[in-house]
Amino acid sequence: MATMKDVARLAGVSTSTVSHVINNNRFVSEGIRAKVNEAVKTLNYAPSALARSLKMNCTRTIGMLVTTSNNPFYAEVVRGVERSCYEQGYSLILCNTEGDYERMDSSLETLLQKRVDGLLLMCTESRAPSSEVLSRYPRLPMVMMDWSPFEYGGDIIQDNSLLGGEIATTYLIDKGFTEIACIAGPQDKLPAKHRLQGYYNAMQKAGLSVRKEFVLTSDFEFSGGLTAMEKLLSLPKLPQAVFTCNDAMAVGAYQAVYQKGLHIPSDISIIGYDDIDLAPYMTPPLSTIHQPKDELGKLAISQLLHRMENLDAKANTLVLTPKLIERSSVVDYKK
């Protein structure tokens, strides 16, 4: 493999001149530039990103730890992160934690050994990454995305899940429903807890009672929504409408309804949360609460770049505002 010294020797110039031509950071006459470019072409020379990163103490890479899940929400957020990295001239190294503490710590070590410039955390594990690992890389810029399941003193970007839960439930109430069920996510996760609390708040504000059997907790996955909806459909008295606290569970809930021989929304109305790409293509299209996933990714990269340049700046918590997306899975019960 050719080196910069080989290029310099063939072009008859110094290695610094070759560097200036390749990086285009100093004036070099057109004649010399042509000689260097010709030597580069002849030797099939490619600059070493590793050598450049060691010299500049900057790899132009960002690491991201994310929980593996069937929930499309994660993939859509990662897509937004990757796009923002590309637009900012960075590469993204993605590691899945598989929901496993040991793998989380191992993946973190891998990312840090690769000298990433900053780190994004989007994990559902209930404890922080190993302090032993992090202590070997002091002052590493980090941003927590979507939620912070453990004590974390850095930057956080998250959805206003409490408001989103209220919006979804209030929408059902405004449509005339009074017997409303909720399939909530795992209550050790802050967004799931807040969405459920939003449901309770809206029901209380409307003066509606909540049946104990109408509130179920699940796992934010397709199968969890299916199992929870099957339980609701086995009750002597069925709910008129259901707020599923994410769209993945709504997909599973749809399946349970159809297996029961019922129809959405004529027999039971459903509203979800997240507005995943699949939502408008479901039958019927799913009414849901939109999370700005692309904006979440864009803000995460923007905040991380800011943190990389301002390590001692005050930590920020940025909250994104959810909004209602009306489609066809909720009927007007008052008519």
How would you summarize the topology of this molecule?
Blueprint: H1 4-11, H2 15-23, H3 30-43, H4 49-56, E1 61-66, H5 72-87, E2 91-96, H6 101-113, E3 118-122, H7 131-135, E4 142-146, E5 155-159, H8 161-174, E6 180-184, H9 190-205, E7 215-217, H10 222-233, E8 241-244, H11 247-259, E9 269-271, E10 288-290, H12 293-309, E11 317-320, E12 323-325
Parallel strand pairs: 1-2, 1-3, 3-4, 4-5, 5-11, 6-7, 6-8, 8-9
Antiparallel strand pairs: 10-12
Helix pairs in contact: 1-2, 1-3, 5-12, 8-9, 10-11
Protein name: Ribose operon repressor
Keywords: DNA-binding, Repressor, Transcription, Transcription regulation
InterPro entries: HTH_LacI, LacI/GalR-like_sensor, Lambda_DNA-bd_dom_sf, Peripla_BP_I, PurR_sensor_dom
Would you kindly provide a written description of the structure presented here, covering whatever features stand out?
With 335 residues, the protein is α/β, with parallel strands linked by helices. The protein has three domains: 4-47, 434 Repressor (Amino-terminal Domain), CATH 1.10.260.40; 57-160 and 293-322, 3-Layer(aba) Sandwich (Rossmann fold); 161-291, Response regulator (Rossmann fold). It contains twelve helices and twelve strands. It has helices at residues 4-11, 15-23, 30-43, 49-56, 72-87, 101-113, 131-135, 161-174, 190-205, 222-233, 247-259, 293-309, and strands at 61-66, 91-96, 118-122, 142-146, 155-159, 180-184, 215-217, 241-244, 269-271, 288-290, 317-320, 323-325. The strands form three sheets. It has a six-stranded parallel beta sheet, with helices on both faces. Strands 7-6-8-9 form a four-stranded parallel beta sheet, with helices on both faces. A two-stranded antiparallel sheet has the order 10-12. Strand 8, helix 11 and strand 9 (269-271) form a beta-alpha-beta unit. The model has no long low-confidence stretch (mean pLDDT 88). It comes from Proteus myxofaciens ATCC 19692. GO terms for molecular function: DNA-binding transcription factor activity; transcription cis-regulatory region binding. Residues 2-56 form the HTH lacI-type domain. InterPro entries: HTH_LacI, LacI/GalR-like_sensor, Lambda_DNA-bd_dom_sf, Peripla_BP_I, PurR_sensor_dom. This is Ribose operon repressor.
